[in-house]
């Protein structure tokens, strides 16, 4: 084998190694970029408000026979602030309601008319794993209470609060006289105050009597199994 052939073969080998090395760097950078992007997105609270276009089959009481749309709007008004299982959210408002068909139907001897309508619905909905933001309205050794979206109650139990946090009981007579409660102190030694905003992950949703309560956690998804009190 000639020297030139050996040099050519060596150059090709070096070029292949360099190309492979550059490809590995690009893959690593792309992976890190996606990881950072995912982490960043996870830390931004979601907007739990949705506008949905709904079609529904609605019964109209006979009292509204001369103005059926008022009967439909009355029915939709009764659904406001109710949890709707098929939508998995709470209806907050409706608008732009209209009949799909020109006529309604009356079955047998029923005094009610039935008609298909379509309308836009403003819904508040969240699910397990969503990252929400709430305003602190209660603190105790057992949990932190929050108000989400100005209306919905959320609770973060002690078991879902980082170990680095600590609860500070009231110490002075002045605090007792001012009816001040204890408060939590975060890992940066900053006191959590009533009215502060806290972001958290949704762990569980419960609906009792149409009222939704949220259980949350301050532990990240990676620490949730390793940082429980």
TrEMBL record:
<feature type="compositionally biased region" description="Basic residues">
    <location>
        <begin position="1"/>
        <end position="13"/>
    </location>
</feature>
<dbReference type="InterPro" id="IPR041178">
    <property type="entry name" value="RPA43_OB"/>
</dbReference>
<keyword id="KW-0240">DNA-directed RNA polymerase</keyword>
<dbReference type="InterPro" id="IPR045113">
    <property type="entry name" value="Rpb7-like"/>
</dbReference>
<feature type="region of interest" description="Disordered">
    <location>
        <begin position="1"/>
        <end position="22"/>
    </location>
</feature>
<dbReference type="GO" id="GO:0005736">
    <property type="term" value="C:RNA polymerase I complex"/>
</dbReference>
<keyword id="KW-0804">Transcription</keyword>
<keyword id="KW-0539">Nucleus</keyword>
<dbReference type="GO" id="GO:0006361">
    <property type="term" value="P:transcription initiation at RNA polymerase I promoter"/>
</dbReference>
<protein>
    <recommendedName>
        <fullName>DNA-directed RNA polymerase subunit</fullName>
    </recommendedName>
</protein>
<feature type="domain" description="RPA43 OB">
    <location>
        <begin position="128"/>
        <end position="219"/>
    </location>
</feature>
<dbReference type="InterPro" id="IPR036898">
    <property type="entry name" value="RNA_pol_Rpb7-like_N_sf"/>
</dbReference>
<comment type="function">
    <text>DNA-dependent RNA polymerase which catalyzes the transcription of DNA into RNA using the four ribonucleoside triphosphates as substrates.</text>
</comment>
<dbReference type="Pfam" id="PF17875">
    <property type="entry name" value="RPA43_OB"/>
</dbReference>
<dbReference type="GO" id="GO:0006362">
    <property type="term" value="P:transcription elongation by RNA polymerase I"/>
</dbReference>
């Amino acid at each position: 084998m000639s020297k030139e052939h050996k040099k050519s073969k060596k150059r090709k080998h070096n070029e292949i190694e360099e190309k492979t090395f550059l490809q590995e760097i690009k893959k690593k950078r792309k992976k890190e970029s996606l990881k950072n992007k995912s982490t960043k997105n996870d830390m931004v609270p979601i907007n739990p408000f949705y506008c949905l276009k709904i079609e529904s089959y609605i019964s109209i009481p006979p009292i509204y026979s001369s103005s059926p749309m008022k009967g439909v709007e009355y029915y939709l008004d009764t659904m406001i602030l109710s949890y709707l299982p098929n939508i998995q959210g709470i209806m907050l408002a409706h608008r732009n309601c209209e009949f799909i068909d020109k006529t309604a139907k009356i079955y047998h001897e029923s005094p009610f008319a039935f008609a298909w309508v379509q309308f836009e619905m403003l819904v508040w909905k969240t699910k397990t794993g969503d990252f929400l933001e709430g305003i602190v309205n209660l603190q105790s050794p057992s949990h932190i209470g929050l108000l989400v979206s100005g209306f919905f109650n959320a609770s973060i139990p002690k078991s879902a609060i980082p170990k680095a946090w600590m609860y500070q009981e009231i110490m002075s007579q002045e605090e007792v006289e001012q009816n001040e409660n204890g408060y939590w102190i975060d890992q940066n030694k900053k006191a959590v105050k009533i009215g502060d905003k806290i972001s958290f992950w949704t762990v569980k949703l419960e609906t009792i009597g149409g009222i939704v309560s949220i259980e949350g956690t301050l532990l990240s998804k990676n620490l949730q199994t390793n940082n429980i009190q």
